[in-house]
Fold:
Amino acid sequence: MGIQSDNALCQAFKLIEACRISEASDLLKEALTIDLDDDGIVFAIKCCGFWTATLSSLPRFSYFEQGETLLNQWKQFLFVAGKQDPEHEKTVYSFKKGIFSLALESYSKALDEKDSRLRSEILRKTGLCYKKLGSYEVALGLLTEANAALPGQSSVIAEMADCYALCGETKNAKMLFREAFYIDAEKIDFFFLDSPLIRVLIEKVEELGYPEPALKEWVAVYGVLFGVFTVKRLLRSQEVIRLRQEIFAKESEIKNPGSSKEIIKPRLLNLYFWLIDHYILSKEASGSISEIMLKMKILDPEIHDLYK
Structure:
């Protein structure tokens, strides 16, 4: 890369980080006329082209919709950008800083929402933006507020766990990830989880060949088997009742020929793990544990052998 091309990219990165994509594109196209074979400039122009239409369409949406559009398009952008060449990392980083800063601005303007469910979602997305921009403690504060506005959402709790992991608070991260996958694995968005703690686990389970949507339920199972979801708590009496009720319901459901067994099985295995943990923590009779272990062996002998 020549000095002129390098200078053009540096100037373009500053414009991109300010979401002045059209200006960055014009500058890069001008630089390309001098160095037609510069791969870095060609890649940056391609990225600018992706975002130009999206940004021009934003004014017709509400602030919340603007934020949603930007986050959804970010997923598409990374797919279009493909596996990152180390030389292109700075380009993608500049777009990340610009797009998530703009999304943060949009969500922040929507925070006067009174509906508790929508307010919680806006707080979650605001926290997510701060997390992507590297402000983990600020993100955690907003996610905690989102959880207070509408407690018990797995999507919020998983993001909180991710922030704790990124802050180096592994114990809290492990506890909350385990909790989130128990509440509702399906609602957890893997795409925006960044900490190595959860990314390595997800990648290992993906390598085992489990497809979506069962993959999320299997991550919960292997989180236990691989020693990630190790921080446990004693369940309250009402929680134990609900756990046993769900186990009974899943055991009945899996016998139905038309049921989605590929999703029910890992969910049921995770429920068995939780009940066994409860028996151990509450010092209940070993006979209760043996009964669940037998059920697990019948359901999936391989997982049973890995667990025992």
